Give the backbone structure.
Amino acid sequence: MKKRVFSGVQPSGDLHIGNYLGAIKRWVALQEEYDNIFCVVDLHAITTPQDPKILKQKIREVAALYLASGIDPQKSKVFVQSHVLAHTELAWILNCFLPVGWMMRMTQFKEKSAKQRQQVSTGLLDYPALMAADILLYQTDLVPVGEDQKQHVELTRDVAQRFNSLYGETFKLPAALIAKEGARIMGLDDPTKKMSKSETATGHAIYLLDSPDEIKTKIAHATTDSGQEIKFDLQKPGIYNLLEIYQLFTGVDRHEIESAFAGKGYGELKSAVAEAIIEGLRPLQQKYTELMADPAYLESLLAQGADQVRPLAEKTVQEVKNKIGLG
Ligand code: TYM
C-alpha cells in the first residue's frame, strides 16, 4: 500500500514561483511514489475578502496550473474543497476540540490579522481547523508544503492526537514533508520576507503566468546585497534567493553553480536566473493555455476528482460522528 499524500493551494491570488518550487513542483516529483490527493482549497480563500467572479475563475486557474505543472489525473486525485461537504463538517467538529489559545498562537494568523486589523474574520482564526479537517479526512501520511505551513500541520497532529486519546484510534497522524531547498522562497523586492500571494508590490513575486519580459524586468530589479561574490551565503539573502531559484529551475548542484559564476557580476547572474525561470515555466504556460481553452474538460476532471475522494471523506466523518454520539 502506498502512503497517502494530501496538499492544497488557496485560489486567493496569482500563484507564484514560491508556491511552485515549495509545493507543486514537489508534488509532481512525488507523484509516482505515493497515493496523492491535491485540492484547490477555495473555502480557505474566503477567510479573506474575495470578489465572487474572480474567485470562481481563480479556482479553475489553480486546478489548471496543477495539471499544467505535471499533476496527472491518472495518478493523482484533483478536486475543489467546497465540492466535498465533509470538509466543513469535520472542520466544525474539530473546532470543538481545538482550544482558542492554540489558534491564537499560529504565526500566520498573527501576521495576517496584524495586516487587516478590524477586518479579521473568525474564519481567519479558525482556518487551521479547516486545514486539519482537509488532512485528517483522508487518513493522510504526508503533507508536502512550504515552511510556512509547518505549524499548521503540527496543530493538525495535536488535534488528531487529542481526539484519538479521547475516543480511540480514529485519525492517522500526518507529518509535514518540507524540502531542504525551496521551502521558503523570498520576495524579490525584500529578500528578508517570504514571497507571498497577498503582497501587491509589482517587483515582489514572479507569477507562474508572467511573460518573459515581465520576468526579465522583475529579476533585473531584484534587491541584491553589497559585495560581489556569488555564493550560497545566508548572510547575503538577495543573492542566496536568486541562486536557490536558479538551482531549483535548472537542477544544477550548488558547487557547480558557484564555480560557473565565479568572477562574474550580479548582472550576469540575473540574466541567467531570468532565462532559467523563463525556460522552466515555458512548457507549463503552454499546457495551461491549452487546458483553459477547454473548460468542459477541466470541469469534468474536477467533478470526477470530487466523486473519487467523497466516499473516503464521508467514511471518516461517519466514524467521527458515531464516536462522539452525533445523530
Ligand atoms: P498557500 O496557498 O498559501 O500556499 C500553497 C503552498 O505554497 C507554499 N508556499 C511557499 N513555498 C515556498 N516559498 C514560499 N514563499 C511560499 N509561499 C507559499 C505553501 O507552504 C503551501 O505549501 N493553508 C495552505 C493551504 C492548505 C493546505 C491544506 C495545505 C489548506 N489545506 C491541507 C496542505 C494540506 C495555504 O494557505 O497555502
About this structure: The domain at 212-289 is CATH 1.10.240.10 (Tyrosyl-Transfer RNA Synthetase). The first strand starts at residue 4 and ends at 9.
